Amino acid sequence: MDIVEKALQIASKNHEGQYRKNTDIPYITHPVAVGMMLLKSGYSEEIVAAGILHDTVEDTPLTLDEIKWEFGPKIAELVEGSSEPDKSLSWKDRKEHTIEFLKTASEDVRAVVCADKLHNIRSIMRDYEQVGDEVWSRFNAGKEQQKWYYTNIVESLGVQSSFDLLIELRKEVDKLFGR
């Protein structure tokens, strides 16, 4: 079976019954969109599969060992690098860890994370157009904290080099938060 198709099946099964924050949109649309962004940007099937699987370890019962067994060490490494390591930490501690980690992360991990954040920002922008400032109440942290997070993510992703998805993310973050 094709690795991307296998990732779609496993992610769909594991995200079944989950929805995007305070919406009726099935959660699987997010990892699929992340994978499609990576595919359109010319990344390998392994990176596309990792993009599709990026939230499974963080948000479903699927473990990193199971991903390694099903997809091999490279995809497991990409999924691990795209996941928050400790959900028991506070929102700010988790985000600070991610910001620092991305400064030295591999180019492939940075691509997956960038596609993830780009889809998140675009989703927030669409929701903002529909409900205005109410959109910020959907999150554990409000607008100013989200601005801090996404602005720092853009900076961290660009420490080593710039790439097309990062250029798009920077534009969208600036548009949403008004730079």
From TrEMBL:
Signal peptide: none annotated. PANTHER family: GUANOSINE-3',5'-BIS(DIPHOSPHATE) 3'-PYROPHOSPHOHYDROLASE MESH1. SMART domains: HDc. This is HD domain-containing protein. It comes from Neobacillus driksii. Residues 23-130 form the HD/PDEase domain.
